[in-house]
Amino acid sequence: MLAVHFGAGNIGRGFIGSLLYKAGYHTTFVDVNDQVIKELNEKQQYRVVLADENEDELTVSNVSGLNSTTSPEEVIQAIVKADIVTTAVGPTILPIISDLLTKGLRERLKKTGHPLNIIACENMIGGSSLLNEEVLKQVTEAEKEQFNRVYGFPNAAVDRIVPNQTNDDLLQVSVEPYYEWVVEETDVKGEKPDIQGITYVSDLTPYIERKLFTVNTGHAVAAYIGHSMGYKTIEEAMSHEPIQEITLGALSESGEVLIRKYGFDHNEHLNYINKIIHRFQNPYISDDVTRVGRGPIRKLGSNDRLIRPATLYLKLTGKDPVNLAKTIAAALTYQNKQDPEAVELQEMIEREGYQTVLEKVSGLEKNHPFIAIVQNQLDIN
Ligand SMILES: NC(=O)C1=CN([C@@H]2O[C@H](COP(=O)(O)OP(=O)(O)OC[C@H]3O[C@@H](n4cnc5c(N)ncnc54)[C@H](O)[C@@H]3O)[C@@H](O)[C@H]2O)C=CC1
Ligand SMILES: O=P(O)(O)OC[C@H]1O[C@](O)(CO)[C@@H](O)[C@@H]1O
Known about the structure:
Layout: E1 2-6, H1 10-22, E2 26-31, H2 34-43, E3 45-50, E4 57-61, E5 63-67, H3 72-81, E6 84-87, H4 94-111, E7 116-120, H5 127-136, H6 141-150, E8 151-152, E9 156-159, E10 173-175, E11 180-184, E12 198-201, H7 205-228, H8 234-238, H9 241-262, H10 266-280, H11 289-292, H12 296-299, H13 307-317, H14 322-332, H15 340-362, H16 369-380
Helix pairs in contact: 3-4, 4-5, 7-9, 7-10, 7-14, 9-10, 9-13, 9-14, 14-16
The structure holds 1,4-dihydronicotinamide adenine dinucleotide and 6-O-phosphono-beta-D-fructofuranose.
Residues 123, 159, 161, 215-216, 219, 292, 294-295 line the site of 6-O-phosphono-beta-D-fructofuranose.
């Protein structure tokens, strides 16, 4: 069985690649990082090390690589033969890879017409749907009907913390032991890919929102508040009691929203929150606040981990989401010259001020009451 996976980075190699290998696939990684592609082809295997006291290892073999910039034709042919396509490139890259993916899917229609599922494994709501939309923008009306009939783009939620890392062995990747991969089965075309580790569900929304508004919300709190207090890593930030309190406070706010929306059991959700806080404190992982806080404009988006739970909390409870507002204020002041979105955000704020920029990036209307709540936090600091 053949898998084509776009993005041979942390999640690509450390999570999706390892489950594809265990399920018996040969995985062709597609990336723009030539060094990684060369090593994948040279070594044809890499090591995944679990970040805990035992440091258990898995050697992932049966892998190869293609550079999408220099070998687009090979990528197209790989898509023609694939049994599954997955991605872990980052939400902003999905429109970029859609071009080559469309070419591959078009060629496949000509050659075999076999069904295929394309699963975007990104931290966002509706990642596969977005990729599907980008693909459909590039096809004719007649092709659209054929694409919709044979190509499935089931949405997915993926959860495993894989920090940025530099190892002597370029391909080696250290990952936390925990993982979760949930896929919405309703959009699968043909047979459901038989991959141990995938949980199929009929409605992904509660799962993706619970994950995004707990793991990613809590992580964002630790990253932005931690950075504002001078901490370098998530573990350092999380050892500071006031940050723990704000994190727990923000997760109580997002938790209240999740419990009200989806009827989760209060105590079970509290256990879920505590487990996640424990994962942030894993002493075997060193995760920079700049990785977790990367892309602040995206993270301040209307459907993302901060604005959505905060505005829903305000709407559903009538109370101020103080801890989420503190975090959003810290995200608005987040400076990192290495992060293009952080640089752009600060330039926008310099020109237009916090209020206008918050409206722009979050999509909130001008007089939305939440804007004043964030302004209040900015004034306090
Ligand atoms: N690292 C983590 O803990 C988790 C990350 N995610 C999500 O997984 C996705 C990937 O994240 P990471 O693996 O951490 O990032 P990463 O930066 O380690 O990997 C992304 C890979 O995509 C490649 N890439 C960039 N442009 C490309 C293009 N045009 N074509 C093909 N490949 C391209 C990069 O060279 C890189 O190897 C993101 O959406 C992230 O939110 C989800 C859960 C956990
Ligand atoms: O990958 P993003 O969306 O930039 O955000 C970083 C987040 O992703 C993760 O890497 C995995 O969910 C978390 O560790 C962190 O909350």
